[in-house]
Known about the structure:
This protein is an alpha/beta fold. The protein has one domain (2-234): TIM Barrel (Alpha-Beta Barrel). It is built from ten helices and nine strands. Strand 1, helix 1 and strand 2 (36-39) form a beta-alpha-beta unit. Helix 9 crosses helix 10. The model has no long low-confidence stretch (mean pLDDT 96).
Amino acid sequence: MIDIHCHILPGLDDGPQHEQEALAMGRAADKEGITHIVATPHHRTSKYDNSKDTILAYVNLLNKLFEREQIGVKILPGQETRIYGEMVEGVKQGELLTQNQTGSYLFVEFPAGHVPRYAEQLFYDFQVAGVTPVIVHPERNSDIARNPDILYNLVKNGALAQITAASLTGVMGKKIKKFTQQIVEHNLTHFIASDAHNTTTRPFKLREGYNELCDRFGVGVEFVFKENAELLIEGRMVNRDVPERIKEKRFFGVF
Ligand SMILES: [Fe+2]
């Protein structure tokens, strides 16, 4: 398995604070059958700034540690950047890091309670520049929960989206689970990832996520999502079905 969203680089954000914790995460991932992890530290949030050069240096360091400790997981560089207006320049100027540095896919995080109005234009500008934005965990955004058409419009216009395994398995609560299922059903997501931060409160559980995907939507969907993770790290075109609107707007006011 490939995990495309994970906070595993030590001391950079709210993931592991020390090397030992990062090693523990690596061992847990190895045990679960994860072979590749895209390390995606937070960037441009109120608390954390981790630009491309820092991330590349830490990825190198952690890969060396994993080799030394015989942990069979390869760390690839990535970033989880909070949306801001000048992101396209950020990519061009080398502050932002596309997933596995292929130049093709960039993670974009919205603030939890809000999707800025300029997102649509920004996403258009990204695509003109040859970069496909990937919206991380849309199921945890309250604007999108109130009005799923926001997600539909962004995906219809070329964005991709990644759901979190814990949202689909129910760890984040029943309402988020139901909404995540609807997002899958309506072809509004293309990837599942752990968004793991540690081995205790926010562990990988990626296999459980894929199992849930398979049980509920069939082995074909599980296969497509697994293949998409592979295609993403190779910078190749991912599978996507025609998105549909979620008509049932039952989540108003639940967040
Ligand atoms: Fe994250």
